[in-house]
Amino acid sequence: MLTYDLIAAISKEIIRTVTGQLFTDREIRAFSTHTVGKYFSDWLPEPQEEKIARKRVEAAREHIREASTIITAMQIELVEQTQKLDLLLEEIEEKKVLAERYTQLVKTNQAQFAAFRQEMEESLRKQLIAQSKQGRRLRQAASAIISLITLLTGAALGAYFKDIVQWAQKIMA
User: Fold this and answer.
1) What is the pLDDT of residues 121-163, one digit of tens each?
2) What backbone torsions phi and psi does residue 102 show, to the nearest 5 degrees?
3) 3-state SS track over 28-74
4) Residues 6+ apart with CB under 8 A from 157
C-alpha cells in the first residue's frame, strides 16, 4: 500500500505539472463550498426540508422560553406560599403555647375562681333583691292605677260600642 500511495502522489504531481492545475476539481469544490458557505450561505436558497426544520427548531425554542417563564412564575408563587404557610405555622405554635399557658393557669386557679364566682353570685343576688325592694310600693301603685284606667276604658268602649260605630259610619259617608 505504501507503494500505491507513493505512485498516486507522484502521478498527481505529474498531472498537475502537465495540465498547469494547482488543485484538483474535488479540492476546488471543497474550497469554494466552504468559502461560499461561510460568507454567502444566507443568500443562497435553502432546501424546503431545512426551512421546515429551522422553523420547527425556532418554534420549539419559543415554546421552551414561554415554558421557562411560566415555570419561573410558578416557582416564585410557590416560594411565596411556602413563606405564608411558615408564618401560619409560627402563629399556630404561638397560639398553642398561649392556650397551654391559659389551661395551666385555669387549673391552678380553679379553686380560687370557684370561690370568687360564688361570692360574686351572692353579691349580685343581694343587689338585685335590694333594687327590687327599693321602688316596690310605687310600682305597685302605678300598676294598680293603670289597671283601673284600662278597666274603665274597656267598660266605656263596651257600653258605647254601637254608638261609636254608628258615629264612625256617618263620618265616613
Assistant:
1) 888 888 888 777 777 787 788 888 999 999 888 888 788 778 8
2) -65, -40
3) HHHHHHHHHHHHHCCCCCCCHHHHHHHHHHHHHHHHHHHHHHHHHHH
4) 164
